[in-house]
Specification:
5 helices, 95 residues, 3 strands
């Protein structure tokens, strides 16, 4: 896993920037739409997520960038951005 084309430092920076952007985008959501927004977050990976990532890394056909992504990002839920965007947690990917 040493030849990543997705630099972990860049990914950590992206996580911070996108989380701030999501907060800004949903700040006036309730005022504009009349109801509270759903979950809109990029959840950072914790130790349990990273343990699942180690299992993912053992799968032969999994690209190193996907492993790097899941080492930092547990899952993505952007329920109120466009039609909604979701990235399943690594445990669901392994099933």
């Amino acid at each position: 896993m040493s030849d990543h084309s997705l630099p972990p430092g860049w990914l950590a920076s992206w996580l911070s920037r996108i989380s701030a952007a999501l907060n800004a985008m949903t700040e006036g959501f309730e005022r504009q739409h009349g109801f509270h927004p759903g979950a809109n977050e990029v959840r950072p990976a914790d130790r349990a997520d990273q343990a699942a990532v180690r299992m993912l890394a053992q799968v032969d056909f999994v690209h190193a960038d996907l492993v790097t992504f899941y080492e930092h990002v547990a899952d993505v839920t952007w329920a109120d951005i466009g039609n909604g965007y979701f990235v399943a947690p690594v445990g669901d990917v392994l099933v």
